[in-house]
Structure formats: structure tokens, C-alpha cells
Amino acid sequence: MEAQTVSDPPRWASENPELGFEPLPIEPYISESYFEQEREKIFRKVWINVGRIDECPEPGCYFMREIEVCGASVLIAHGHDGVVRAFYNVCSHRGNKLVWNERGSAKYLTCCFHGWSYDLKGQLRGVLDEGEFRNLEKGKLGLTPISCETWKGFIYINFQPEPDETLLEYLDGVPDALHDCPFDELQLTFRYDVEEQSNWKVVADSQNEMHHAPVLGPVHASFSDTYPLTEEGFTRLAVFEKFGRHTVWGADAREDYEPWGLEKHLGELTRVWEHSFPTKAGIFDYYAIFPNQVIGILGNSVFTYNFWPLAVDRTRWETRMYFPPAQNAADLFFQHYWKAKLRDTLSEDLAGHEQTYRGLASRAKSHFLLCDQEIPIRAFHKTLHSYVPAELA
After folding, report:
1. By three-state DSSP, how is residue 372 classified?
2. 3-state SS, residue 129
3. Can you tell me the distance from the alpha carbon of 169 to that of 240, in angstroms, rounded to the nearest whole number?
4. Which residue from 327, 345, 232 is spatially nearest to 284, judged by alpha carbons?
5. Do strands 301-311 and 293-298 pair parallel, antiparallel, or not at all (unpaired)?
6. Which of 102, 128, 162 is a domain's end point?
7. Inside any domain, residue 39
């Protein structure tokens, strides 16, 4: 009998042996107690992205975010001194929500309950019927601050009164990798927000690999001629790197790819942008910033995801797309073409998320398997379990 040969170990597992190769447990996706520990040990402890400067671009602008996983309404204010700050959106008088509208611009923010007003530095400026209060120390009754820092126009908060590390320390090597990306020259072109019946990690996992692309649905499969496939029709990562808690992966473009149809004609008519994004792979880079943010580089555009836990079985998935400002009708049409194509792609993804969660919640299986092309998921869970061990589910 011919002796069996041992094949070479898969590439990414060989290069990242610390990530292991064992099946991952399902219980952390469906356990209420595990979800509560994620709330306390992750989302209340680390830097989380809550938006971009586009949402409060000028001094005097503000926006409000509900961070359900932390049980907090957050106010982001661009002060008249040019500083972006974050506060709990809570009036110091009786605890009413101070700002109810999603965004706006003002010199002072006034509570609709009893009229207390604050400036955009969070300082208490006005108290109606002030004489009726005893020992009122207005200087100590400002809005409660939340640690807030910005990077490349992205706004991050940390619910710890004194964070364990600065934002740049937390982001590790991501700022260096994206140092030359001209984010400030792009504008928010469209957004999608959708609530789905799935655990937030199912959503994050499903987007954190491209192994499903040729299989999940016809819109996904329509991209298959843009990147190399194996003879059997499978995708392959061109790059995978770790930056502490965060990762980047990407895919190369097919050397012989030629656009056709509407995409070809639009490409001939649209303006050639003078700037280019440095990418580690040829067609796109996918930066997964722990715990719930994604920055994707795709051509001369950027897309972002945020996966917000609402409950153990509910997630809000926010998608944003940024393009250079349109210079002609072809630019504008091209952007809306991609808006529609992304919408249809994400619709297939969403259906997959919810069906996956139903399968996990049935407890038909106790673990699931990952192939080498799903190494980004393994890296994510390695970090996740460093905060909340899987055994605690």
C-alpha cells in the first residue's frame, strides 16, 4: 500500500499558529449571560466608534446617539472652540434626556422639561426660576462627560472615566496602515441602517470573510469575475495581518478583468480621481476594528460598517458609503449604481445572518468549524475571548 503523505498546513494557520485551529463554541452567540458580560467587559471598556465628523462638521453642530448595548444616550458636540466632546445626554436637574432630535446646531442646548440650558462645552449656563433652589452650585452641574477622541475624522468614545489607553494606543497599527488615505476628501454619499434578528457576532463574522462570496446568492456571485478564483471556484485571501486586537484582509483583482455593460460605459464617462488609496491587496482592504467597526477601502471609495448589539438576538447594522464629490452626471449615476448593487448584496447577507442565527439558537450543534480562509473570524474571537472567555457562556 502506498504511504499517505501529509499535506502542507494551510497558509494562514501556519503563519498565525497562536490563533489555533479548534472549532468555536456556539453558546457565546445565544447565551443571555454571555451577552451581559460583553456589555460590561467589552463595550463599556474599549474605544467604540460612534460616527464621523461629517455628522457635526462645524462648530455649534451636535448629534445624538443611542448606544443601547451600554444603556446610554450619548451627545456628541462640536464646541465653538473647535473641540469635539461627548457627554451623557442627561440633564443635571431631573435626569431627563436633554437632546431629543437626532442632530442640529445651537449655541445652547435647553432641556424641554424645565428649561435648564448648557453650552456645547457641557457647562450649565441657565436655570429657570433659579431662586427656588438652595445651595445651587452651577459650576458643578454641567453635563457628565464621556471620554472622546478622534482619528481621521472618526469619532470614538470610551465609557471608562479614565480609559486604560489612548485611542491611538488602542488602534495599534491601524493609523499607520491608513495614514495616507485621504478620508477628508470624501463625502458621505449614502447610508443604510437595518435591524436584524441575529446576534451581533454572527453579523460581524459573516462580513469578516469572503469565502461565502461565490455561493451565498446571485448578486454575490456577480462579483466573482473581479477577483481570482481557484479552479474549483473558491476565493482566496491575498493578505491577512493583525494589528493587536484588529485585523486587515483583502483580495487581489483579476489581471484579465474587463468591465462590461453598464459598468464599462460608466467607467468611461466618470472622472478619474487624482488621488489613490494605498491598499495591501489589489481590489479591496477590509479593516476589522474590534469590537464592532469596519473600514473598507474599495477603489476610490470607502465603506464603513458598525454592528450594534441591541439584545442577544437583535443587531442594528449600519452601513455608510463615502465617495469623492461627484463632478458630473456620470459620477453621480455611478455612485447610485453602486448604492443599488451594495443594497442588493447586503440583502443577501442579511438573510444569511438571520438564518445562521436560527441554526445556532436551535442548539443542534455545540461548535462550528472554520477553514483557513476564515482566519479573520478566528482572530476576532481570539480577541473577544480575551475579554470574555468562552467558558463563561
Report:
1. helix
2. coil
3. 21
4. 345
5. antiparallel
6. 162
7. no
